């Protein structure tokens, strides 16, 4: 297994170089997709299943999967997380699906808040025959690239207070002014992560209100997210407010949520 992981790593370096040289003139797309944009792991579950599918109808993929604790550059062999993912490496034929089993090792994790990990799925395209008569010319003559998909895994202890649906309504929004300009702070007192799809600063009232889209992000349990305000908003009026949408457990977007800015 170690030898296979090393071979994969070397192959990815070569493919990444090809990607850098060829992306400007070639359209590329990933073949492997993950069911869901996030995974929720309730502590009481023995395991959760993650399903991946090869959407390419012609070529197989070699897939490597692993978890990390937040460092996207960490090598799979060095990742130290309290989970086992099986199988970690497998062939995924064209148009087929594979279920991976993710299980918690029971190593200690915080019990008063969620913990965040990241699922990595790396696909390396298999070779297709140049002389396959079933393939069109556009399918025979093209570059092949490696892709990595990285999605969130939320480990959810059994006895958390509140619910994930209540967490967005508990957020406290405030304005902080500094030498570099204004910053909107979002404090999350809940035990759950809140991931934003959109944050809009509204200045003024009615249809004439000025709207500024801010950078989306995620605020961790008990944490504070600082969102820079564009320089165009030199002065934030006292009646300014925020509308935001968040992403729920199923990957869907909420309706717009109004919020008061405290000072």
Would you write up a description of this structure?
- The protein has 263 residues and is mostly beta strands.
- The protein is 11% helix and 41% strand.
- It is built from three helices and 17 strands.
- The protein has helices spanning 2-22, 137-140, 167-170; strands spanning 32-34, 38-42, 48-54, 61-68, 83-86, 89-92, 97-104, 115-125, 147-156, 172-178, 181-187, 194-203, 210-214, 218-219, 224-228, 241-247, 257-262.
- A hairpin with a 6-residue loop joins strand 12 (194-203) and strand 13.
- The chain starts with a helix and ends with a strand.
- Mean pLDDT is 84; it is low at 1-28.
What is the H/E order? HEEEEEEEEHEHEEEEEEEE
What is the average per-residue confidence, as pLDDT, rounded to a whole number? Answer: 84
Q: Total number of helical segments?
A: 3
Question: Looking at the structure, what is the overall shape?
Answer: globular
What is the total tally of β strands? Answer: 17
Instruction: Please state the structural category.
Output: mainly beta
Regarding quaternary structure, what we see is single chain
Distance between the termini: 56 Å
Q: DSSP strand (E) fraction? A: 35-45%
List keywords for this structure.
5-stranded mixed beta sheet, 8-stranded mixed beta sheet, 3 helices, mainly beta, disordered N terminus, 263 residues, 41% strand
Quick description:
The protein has three helices and 17 strands. The protein has about 260 residues and is mainly beta.
Task: Itemize the secondary structure elements and their pairings.
Blueprint: H1 2-22, E1 32-34, E2 38-42, E3 48-54, E4 61-68, E5 83-86, E6 89-92, E7 97-104, E8 115-125, H2 137-140, E9 147-156, H3 167-170, E10 172-178, E11 181-187, E12 194-203, E13 210-214, E14 218-219, E15 224-228, E16 241-247, E17 257-262
Parallel strand pairs: 2-9, 10-17
Antiparallel strand pairs: 1-3, 3-7, 4-6, 4-8, 5-7, 8-9, 10-11, 11-15, 12-13, 12-14, 12-16, 16-17
């Amino acid at each position: 297994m170690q030898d296979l992981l090393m071979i994969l790593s070397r192959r990815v370096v070569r493919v990444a170089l090809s990607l850098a040289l060829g992306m400007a003139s070639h359209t590329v797309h990933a073949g492997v997709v993950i069911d869901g944009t996030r995974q929720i792991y309730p502590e009481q579950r023995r395991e959760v299943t993650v399903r991946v599918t090869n959407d390419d109808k012609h070529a197989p993929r070699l897939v490597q999967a692993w978890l990390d604790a937040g460092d996207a550059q960490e090598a799979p062999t060095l990742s130290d997380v309290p989970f086992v993912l099986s199988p970690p490496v497998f062939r995924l034929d064209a148009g087929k699906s594979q279920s991976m089993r993710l299980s918690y090792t029971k190593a200690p994790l915080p019990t008063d808040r969620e913990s965040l990990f990241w699922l990595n799925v790396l696909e390396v395209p298999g070779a297709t025959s140049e002389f396959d008569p079933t393939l069109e010319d556009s399918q025979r003559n093209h570059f092949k690239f490696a892709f990595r998909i990285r999605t969130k895994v939320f480990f959810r202890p059994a006895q958390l207070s509140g619910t994930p649906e209540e967490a967005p309504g508990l957020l406290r929004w405030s304005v902080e002014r500094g030498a570099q300009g204004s910053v909107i702070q979002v404090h999350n007192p809940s035990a759950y992560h809140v991931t934003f799809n959109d944050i809009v600063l509204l200045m003024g009232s009615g249809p004439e209100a000025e709207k500024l889209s801010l950078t989306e992000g995620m605020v961790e349990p008990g944490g504070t997210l600082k969102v820079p305000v564009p320089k165009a908003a030199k002065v934030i009026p006292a009646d300014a407010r925020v509308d935001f949408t968040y992403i729920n457990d199923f990957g869907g977007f909420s309706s717009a949520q109004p919020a008061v800015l405290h000072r």
